Amino acid sequence: MKKITAISYSSSANLGSGFDTLALAHDAFHDKITLRMQENSGPLEINMFHDGIQTDPLKNTASYAFMKMAEDLDIKGKFSISVEKGVPEGLGLGSSGASAAGSVVAANRLLDLGLSLDKLTHYAMLGEGASSGSPHADNVAASIFGGVVFVKSTNPMKVLSLNSSSANGVMLIIPKIKIHGKTKLARSMVPEMVHMDNVISNSRLMSMLVLGLTDGDRSLLREGMNDNIVETSRLSLFPFYPEVKDICLQENAIGASISGAGPSIILLMDRETNVENIKLRVKPLMKERGIDADFVQCSIARGVTMYEE
Amino acid sequence: MKKITAISYSSSANLGSGFDTLALAHDAFHDKITLRMQENSGPLEINMFHDGIQTDPLKNTASYAFMKMAEDLDIKGKFSISVEKGVPEGLGLGSSGASAAGSVVAANRLLDLGLSLDKLTHYAMLGEGASSGSPHADNVAASIFGGVVFVKSTNPMKVLSLNSSSANGVMLIIPKIKIHGKTKLARSMVPEMVHMDNVISNSRLMSMLVLGLTDGDRSLLREGMNDNIVETSRLSLFPFYPEVKDICLQENAIGASISGAGPSIILLMDRETNVENIKLRVKPLMKERGIDADFVQCSIARGVTMYEE
């Protein structure tokens, strides 16, 4: 019986102005995805285990992504996928994406398929569609490629790896709240039409962000992590955000934005950032709103890594 | 009598996806702007000469920009401004911007004002407003700073000089057609509201363009010089453009876009570009439409330069 285990990291999409385009992988959390080939012929059969409990393979992004890949490539046989969930769900940390990413990268290795990372991102995105309703590639690309990714297009899938020159630290502020159906809800809040003035300003912000990510310019990063379309439209989901962001910037975080569809917040930090003050000031502010928050310091993560047992 | 003469270059705004943000100065054409101080006190009086002919100072961007600056800074006295026009007008080559840029930079030197280039861009933009109806900063910033500029914001004015790493050549394809009230007309054709899908794709394109401009990546430049909002909406002004662009890309231009509000087309080129084939194929195509076109090879220009006589 062949078997591969993959470690797939959490990620933060958008980073302010980069809606559906930019994402950063971080080593705050990871999923452990084990793919076993039990039979190498016969009709496709997938058994899915989530933290040891068997679940519907159509409802888990790891198995759903692998199924889409198997259908497309005419892969036969009996497989089991087992996910040890490390990335918390429903907090905007790329949890469903991490599982899908790990599964397709493991399959590529196990079955010696030789697929490009772009192609793997394509299949992982289809898997993501199972959970979010609308497939998007940013989180899965970050988990697969590692570092900071820029989704150039999704059809065909083309991902650019940004050589993030800055050795910035990352902090996640994770409010412990669950919003039912959050990802779909958050998507539905994005406006369908945008005023041209905001189009120009968003294009400017994202360009500054991308420049800042590649050359490490602090002020470009800080400005580029702002957004006036998507975050603004979703503000009712995380009303604490403007105040928390203000504190982070006052305490010299490089920049701060909502992580994916929220409610978590991602900060980029360096030596000038007063991390302790951020914790001291943000914690009581969240408490007043009846929200407990975790603060997780971490680093930019590499892509999916694998080992054979 | 004190006197300064400034050389101010032509420019191409937008470069595809960078509407109202990106512009490139080129040495294809230049204006020569001479500012004389005839009296250094008394009420402000400006005499404006365009190619030797006295004209209304309210209707020329050089004098209008200087007037706005003088009002704001309480500059007194009697001045004359004389523009020898080198940049052809109405062709999307930053003609009105070049005059405004030269005039304020000359005034800064003549009166020893010590203003920043951002501040000078602000006044030059106000001058531009006299001709286009809606002030925009891209062309004036390119003429003032030289090279490739990125307008981060106009209020307050903040311009980023992009260190264009590539020593790319530039070619302008200039159709000899005049469209009455073109700049205003072109502005009125830009949609007020844009679909979110196009917002995402434009932000992506502009980010790729900015990355390409700074690191010289050919494929990023080529993609980033595309646009699906502004150029598309103005296509009836230059119906020949899609076909001409196709030829340019087939002949390995790095990228091609409408220059500013058109009708000129700007190409970025390198050694792989077959310039002669572009001319051979585009000329007859324009002829069929009854349009004569000039082809001007040039380089990226420096900012306004001055000499005292």
In words, what does this structure look like?
2 copies of one chain form a homodimer. With 309 residues, chain A is of the alpha+beta class. Chain A has 2 domains: 2-163 and 301-307, 2-Layer Sandwich (Ribosomal Protein S5, domain 2); 169-298, 2-Layer Sandwich (Alpha-Beta Plaits), CATH 3.30.70.890. Chain A contains 10 helices and 13 strands. Chain A has helices spanning 61-73, 95-110, 117-132, 138-145, 182-189, 196-215, 218-224, 230-233, 241-250, 275-288, and strands at 2-14, 18-39, 45-50, 53-55, 78-84, 148-154, 157-162, 169-175, 193-195, 255-258, 265-269, 293-298, 305-307. In chain A, the strands form 2 sheets. In chain A, strands 1, 2, 3, 4, 5, 6, 7 and 13 form an 8-stranded mixed beta sheet that branches. In chain A, strands 10-11-8-12 form a 4-stranded antiparallel beta sheet. Chain A is globular. The relative contact order of chain A is 0.19. The A-B interface holds A 17-21, 150-153, 160, 190-196, 198-200, 202-204, 206-211, 214-215, 220, 223, 229 and B 17-21, 150-153, 160, 190-196, 198-200, 202-204, 206-211, 214-215, 220, 223, 229.
Oligomer: homodimer
Please count the helical segments of chain A: 10
Instruction: Describe the global form of chain A.
Output: globular
Quick one: CATH class of the largest domain in chain A? Answer: Alpha Beta
Q: Which range best describes the helical content of chain A: under 10%, 10-25%, 25-40%, 40-55%, 55-70% or over 70%?
A: 25-40%
Q: How much strand content do the residues of chain A show?
A: 25-35%
Largest interface: A-B, 34 and 34 residues
The biggest sheet of chain A amounts to: 8 strands, mixed
- Contiguous runs where pLDDT drops below 50 for at least 5 residues of chain A: none
Strand-and-helix sequence of chain A, N→C? EEEEHEHHHEEEHEHHHHEEHEE
Integer count of domains of chain A: 2
CATH architecture title of the largest domain in chain A: 2-Layer Sandwich
